[in-house]
Each structure stands twice: as C-alpha cells, then as structure tokens.
Amino acid sequence: MIDRLIGAFTGNTATYEEIEHDESATWQAAVIVSIAALLGGLGSGLTGGIIGGDNAPGFGESFLTGALSAILSWVIWSGLIHFIGTKFFGAESTLGEILRVTGFAAVTTWLVVIPVIGALSILWYFWVVFKAIRTGLDIPTGPTVLVIAIGLVIRVVLRLVFPAIF
C-alpha cells in the first residue's frame, strides 16, 4: 500500500494502471478519500470554529460538513468523469476503475492541513488527478482535458444549485 501511495502521489502512470485493474483496491481508495475528508474536515472545522464570525458554524458542524461533502464529492466527481468519458469520448472504463484512480489521487490532498504547502498541494492534485483520469479512462491527453473541463463545469453548476452537498 505504501508503494501505491507514493506512486499515486508522484503521478506514476504504472501505479495508476495497477490500481485501475485491481478491484480489491477500491476499499483502499475509499480509505484514502476518508483520510483526506477527515483532514479537510479538520481544516474546515478550524477555519469555521476559530476564524469564523459570530454567525459562523462551530468546529463540529464545519468538520462534519467538510468531511461528508468530501466523500460525497468523490463519488459524484468519479461518476461524472466516468459518464462523460464513456458516453462522449468512447472510453472503455468502469465506475470502479475511476473511483479507484481518483481515490488514490486524493493522497495529494493530505497536505492540505499544512499552511502554504496545503494550498500548493491543490495544484499538485490537479496534475495527479489528470494523470489518474487519463489512465483510468485509457484516452489521450486532449480528450482527458475535455472530460475534466466538462466535469468541472458541471461540478460548479451543481455546487451552485446544491451548496449543502458540496
């Protein structure tokens, strides 16, 4: 598992190929996302509980909302990527494969709790998740960029319509 975490963190395509085809790695991806969700929830809780004003939610509410929305976002994001990739770009992939590769890509977000480095880790996440999605969908770079762009637009619209979920 440690080798996979390092490979996923560094964007190693061979690691993502291995993860994509290992159906038993779905639970590992879920654990990685859960840890990322807990760390993100911790960050949300600290921000809401310490920095928030009088009407801001407290630590517990911010933590719970942040953690749950991260897990739900992973499932929805993976579903969007799978749907767009297979229906519009002819990718041959399963939802499980996309859940696994995007779940492992979330290892980069574990750094979010470190000031400054955490903010920069988001940029690294975009590079790593691009490599993960390209591998999971088995499509070239151009279509991968389009799948991600369309997915992000839909995700932003969903976030505006359903802010409590995201």
Quote the distance from N terminus to C terminus: 29 Å
Question: What would you report as the Rg, rounded to the nearest angstrom?
Answer: 16 Å
Strand percent estimate: under 5%
How much is the average pLDDT? 87
Number of helices: 7
Explain the overall architecture:
The protein has helices at 2-10, 13-21, 26-51, 59-88, 95-105, 117-137, 141-161. It is built from seven helices and no strands. It has one domain (2-161). The longest helix has 30 residues, at 59-88. The protein has 166 residues and is mainly alpha-helical.
Brief digest:
By secondary structure, this protein is mainly alpha-helical.
Keywords:
single chain; 166 residues; mainly alpha; 7 helices
Which SSEs are present, and which pair or pack?
Blueprint: H1 2-10, H2 13-21, H3 26-51, H4 59-88, H5 95-105, H6 117-137, H7 141-161
Helix pairs in contact: 2-5, 2-6, 3-4, 3-5, 4-5, 4-7, 5-6, 6-7
